[in-house]
Specification:
Structural class: alpha/beta
Strand content: 5-15%
Bound molecules: 5'-deoxyadenosine, iron/sulfur cluster
CATH superfamily: Aldolase class I
Number of strands: 9
Number of helices: 14
Number of domains: 1
CATH topology: TIM Barrel
Length: 339
């Protein structure tokens, strides 16, 4: 029964829920193994790298789970200057990483022109694919930044359940977020989204809906990460996600979307010592390395005890390289520049 289900090409919601509900160790093992096989048909033994640059931790939103929320007045805030950002990207590309994610809270200090200047300057100086992860902005801004050279846009919907979405996000609406993602795709961005697995009140049915919505949106990147309680937030005392449910989510995502890029996230590495490798063995084909300069990195406290706070990203790269090679995979040198 399970074997024939795992070999299907299309999955109903009931089937997705069934797979997410697997509890027996050997059955979970079969699911992860199948997802790993599907991943290997797609990308062989190559693991791609996204270089993350968290350039501002200012945010006007108040998401109940996130340490960067505006009401967290205990968090020292920072903004990197355009020159700092451009220099940091140069360093990232010097290390052979050709895909960067410029990430921040929702911070309109970086207005249309300033972001366009940063994107354009980077494109003049570096052979790099740029993905923006800066929240909901104006449709005209998205257009301007595309023309300036941006390639991708990452904007997680966190949950596809509209009721939960409005509880977690207070000021924001799920429909707006989905319309923004669809618009970004129509004007030529590669789009990425994701959910947080293990949020308070979330059910397995909700996670199944999250995965099926990934499919509907035509994603380039599907990033599921585990919920980790963050101090100074309303959800500071909630339970963190269980490792198995996030691994099952990654695996089912791979079965449902065989071609999508799936990162094994820093949150997964924070949740479990071997989380990142386990993610790569459950269907993920991408790792994210944090290249935020160390003076800022510890202030990007989405949640506590973020992994990989090593001062030197070179150490992260070589540490990851060892881990990745230990499972018979290798870092691919020029990810996502082919578009
Ligand atoms: N646990 C896990 N992920 C979180 N994020 C924010 N808060 C948490 C948390 N407590 C993620 C969200 C968001 C990104 C900034 O960090 O997915 O998109
Ligand atoms: Fe801001 Fe994003 Fe955190 Fe929400 S999840 S508070 S939008 S940084």
């Amino acid at each position: 029964m399970l074997n024939s289900l795992l070999n299907k090409e299309f999955f109903t919601k009931e089937e997705v829920v069934y797979l997410l509900n697997l509890e027996a160790k050997d059955e979970i093992g079969l699911l992860l193994k199948k997802a790993d096989q599907v991943r290997s048909v797609r990308s062989g033994n190559e693991v791609s790298i996204y270089g993350m640059l968290d350039f501002s931790n200012n945010c006007v939103q108040n998401c109940l789970y996130c340490g960067l929320r505006e009401d967290n007045i205990t968090l020292p805030r920072y903004r990197m200057s355009p020159d700092e950002i451009i220099d940091a990207v140069k360093q990232i590309t010097n290390m052979g990483v050709n895909s960067v994610v410029l990430q921040s809270g929702e911070d309109t200090e970086y207005d249309t022109d300033l972001m366009a200047y940063i994107i354009y300057s980077i494109k003049q100086k570096c052979n790099v694919s740029i993905t923006l992860s800066i929240g909901e902005r104006g449709f005209d801004e998205y257009r301007t930044w595309k023309i300036a050279g941006a390639d991708g846009y990452l904007m997680k919907y966190e949950t596809s359940n509209p009721k939960l979405y409005s509880i977690y996000h207070i000021k924001q609406k799920l429909n707006d977020r989905l319309n923004h993602l669809r618009f970004l795709k129509t004007i030529g961005y590669k789009i990425g989204t994701g959910n947080i697995v293990g949020l308070p009140m979330q059910t397995v049915e909700d996670i199944a809906d999250d995965i099926l919505l990934y499919k509907e949106l035509g994603l380039d990147v599907a990033a599921s990460g585990p919920f980790i309680p963050s101090s100074h937030t309303p959800y500071r005392s909630k339970l963190q996600a269980d490792l198995n449910i996030i691994l099952k989510t990654i695996a089912v995502t791979r079965l449902v979307l065989s071609e999508v890029n799936i990162p094994s996230t820093t949150a997964l590495a924070t949740l479990n010592e071997e989380g990142r490798i386990k993610g790569l063995q459950a269907g993920a084909n991408v790792v994210m390395i944090d290249f935020t300069p160390s003076i800022y990195r510890e202030k990007y406290q989405v949640y506590a005890n973020r992994k990989c706070l090593d001062e030197n990203p070179l150490n992260c790269r070589s540490c990851l390289q060892v881990q990745i090679e230990s499972i018979g995979r290798k870092i691919s040198t020029f990810p996502f520049i082919e578009s």
